[in-house]
Amino acid sequence: MDEARRPLIEIAGVSKHFGEGEARVDALRDIDLTVRRGEVVALLGPSGSGKTTLLNVIGCIIAPTVGRVTLDGELVYDNRALRGDLRRLRLDKIGFIFQFHNLLPFLNARDNVALVLTLAGRSSAEAQERALELLDYLEVGHRKDAMPAVLSGGEAQRVAIARALANSPRIILADEPTAALDSKRAGIVMDLLRKLAAEHDACIVAVTHDEKIYDRFDRLFHLRDGVLEDQEEEAT
Amino acid sequence: MNLAYRDVRHNLFRFVLTCLGLSLLMAVVLAMIGIYNGLVADALNIVKAPQADLWVVESGTQGPFAEASKIPGSTRDAVARLHGVAEAGSITYQTVEARHAGDTLRLYVIGYEPGRPGGPQAIAEGRGITQTHFELVADRQTGLVVGDRIRLGRNSFAVVGLVEDTMNSGGDPAAFITLPNAQILQSQLAPPAQRIQTARGAGLLESADTVAAVIARLEPAADPLGVATTVRQWKHLGALTQAEQEAILIGSVVDRAKRQIGLFLGILLTVSAVVIALIIYTMTMEKLKQIATLKLIGAPDRTIVSLIVQQSLALGMVGWSFGLILILLVKDYFPRRVVLEPVNAAALGGIIIVVCIVASGLGVRAALKVDPATAIGG
Ligand SMILES: Nc1ncnc2c1ncn2[C@@H]1O[C@H](COP(=O)(O)OP(=O)(O)OP(=O)(O)O)[C@@H](O)[C@H]1O
Ligand SMILES: [Mg+2]
Question: Could you tell me the pTM of the whole model?
Answer without folding.
Answer: 0.75
